[in-house]
User: Fold this.
Amino acid sequence: MLTLNGINSGLDTKALIDSLVQVQRIPKESSLQRQKNVDTFELSALGQLQGALNSFDDVISDLSDGSALVKRRATVSDLDVLTVTPSASSSTGNYTFTVSALATNHQMATADFNSTDTFGTGTLKLSVGGEDLDLTLDSSNNTLTGIRDAINDAENNPGIRAAFINNGGQKRLLITGDNTGVANTVTIDITGLTIGGGDQTITAGISDLQAAADAEVTLGDPANPNSIQITHGDNTIEDFIDGVTLDLKSVSATPVSVTVFQDESAASNSIRRFVAAYNDLVTTRNSVTNFSEGGGASALHGDSQTRILSSLMRNAVGDSYTVGSESLSLSQMGIFTSSTGALEIDESKFKAGVTNHYSKLESFFSGDDGLMSTLSEKLKSYDSSSGLIKTRMDRLQDGLLDIDAETLKLDAQMEQVRSYWVSQFQTMEEVMGQFNSSASYLTQALRSLSNNNDN
Assistant:
């Protein structure tokens, strides 16, 4: 193959071919690159907007529950005696509790036995909380070890555990009920066992290490005959005061004071979180739609979908919502819309608004026709998985893939163009070579003829 180095023509044929290829390539390549830049610019802006929408939607979902807004807190004068967990429905107020007894579980131990002692065959019955555990004993498991394992491995075990107490060369079987309260006293019935002459009696010498007992709590001053005393099977009491859970820790010599109150700080923090997420979305929206003299237009400047989104958000946070027989708006809670579209908090009015409207916050934000459900409904068409923005992003992604495919196609076309021009210049160089050879022959012939004539 002829090397295109201009040896015959004296031309820089490689540079000429590169220029000819570029002349055909540049218009199409520039068009594809411009479209790729535009699509990538828009795709990035839509991704930012969708991300901010997703974060905002997470906050909407959290506040739709309502439990984050209406909370109760409690103070306890002696946390070593008891702790208190109020629910959102618990009544506020002051309470006095005295713990005179804690609930305990039953624990008993057998007498000392040798590891080889046997305890008969048949059925050994253990009972707790109204449920029975029937163990079948035979020569393979009627030792202390066999009984312990049969108790612990039973699939229908109602809440009884067994362990060994080692006492020198002998062992005692420790039997413990899992649950506290008198109702969970463990009993052992050996009437179903046949005890042979060499067998021991498992219940002989058995003793309680700890009796099952109920917790005893008094509401009010124990010295007051009108105080209320209850007993409870365990140390967690959920039904004494409606909506309040007591966790008993120890017996108290003196009454413990408990105050249950509205947690306005939790409501304030939840509302502030909503405002922050809303403002993050507004900031993102502004950044992808703005126009500046120096920076030009952002990717979504003038975009109709984004304008509609802005309008939906602005209308939702600016509306009033019915709460009972009244209506309530964010502005009544000290939250206003600024010139940029963001929400601003007037701290003094906000604090007073949360206090004055505390009982209405759940309905306003989380009610069926409240702010969160309204926002959720209005923004449904912008859902991250199948909404308007996702659809546009998918279309742009497909367009970028098409551009990549067109670029590869252009590369192949330009290779064909290059091959064409290589072929043309090869032919030219061959013709020029033949011409140069003929010219050289004629020159030599004429010179020889001239020399002969001179002689």
